[in-house]
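User: Second chain of the day. Same drill as before.
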Amino acid sequence: MKRMEIVQLGLGNVGRAVAQIILEERKRWLEELDLEVSYRAVSDTSGALVGEDLLPQAIRFKEKGGKLADLGTEPLEDVLVSDPEPGSIRVVVDLAVHGGTYDLDLLGIQNGSYLVLSNKGPLSGTTDQYEKLMKLLPDRLWHEATVGAGMPVISTINSLIASGDEIFEIQASPSGTLGFIMSAVEGGHSFSEAVRMAVELHYAEPDPRDDLSGLDVARKAIILARTMGREIEPGEIPYQSLVPDGLENVSQEEFMERLPEADEAFHDRLVSVEAGHMLRYLARIPKEGPVTVGLADTPVESPFGPISGPENVFDFHTRRYSDVTLTISGPGAGPERTASGVVFDLLDIARRVTRDEEE
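Assistant: Same format as last time:
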């Protein structure tokens, strides 16, 4: 029997969705895959809740805005350096939203843990940080959910390169949040209405500036570029912010109240697009040269023209896919979809460990 022990960083929207899936499905995994999954700990910024007896209660508690410290926590660092249960592999599952977990991830992998990421921070920092992480775990890192939620984007890049193909350029609409907002405005909603809808549907973070700033797309562009084999620093990728001027540093409540002030300017930008084009928020990652992130006038007949709702589109121009590009599209926002990508990675680790043991 395979035994997997999880230490999960983050119990936000995605973290709660991952925990729910695991609690609901692990009995079936035990029966069908001979895989036993247990939680060693879950954490938020207040500390780590050790064990899983209180996990269902913790999920409900976090939904109401509580902190795990109120349920009784221990330092996460102590959990990460402890040994897993005998016969178990440990997987650190980093689902934090705002980064800041790089050193914690290092603690875990230095103790032999596997690492699964939806958090883009650890892979989009400086080159020195990235190379140190990759050197420590070249075969213990899974991060499909960092780009495209549950879509097979990272695995497609790796497969293309492994097969001997050469990637000339990736163009992408990699933010389901911004895709939803753009299509909602095109459908007749104001900019502020579209943002509110994205928050209510959990397509955007509770503070939508985390998405509107463009930083999330820039981090995804860094990950894509590095997966392609490029050496790139975060400061080399300028990105366009859609946060209205003057609202960058106000409280979240004031931001939402004043957001309608930007409606007219955004509408004017939308209607200025030439006939036969659509306004899309895109990342362009060439094999060489500048990476660009921001609004772009896009032909309707391009892969990005038909985007509707929280859809992601990734268009690959390669040596083998040159006359007709390879396009991957699908829903790229929503906690359950990102959680699915994380769970796919966990199951892939279990399969990999089984193969290695058999060999």
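The chain has 13 helices and eleven strands.

User: Great, on to the next one.
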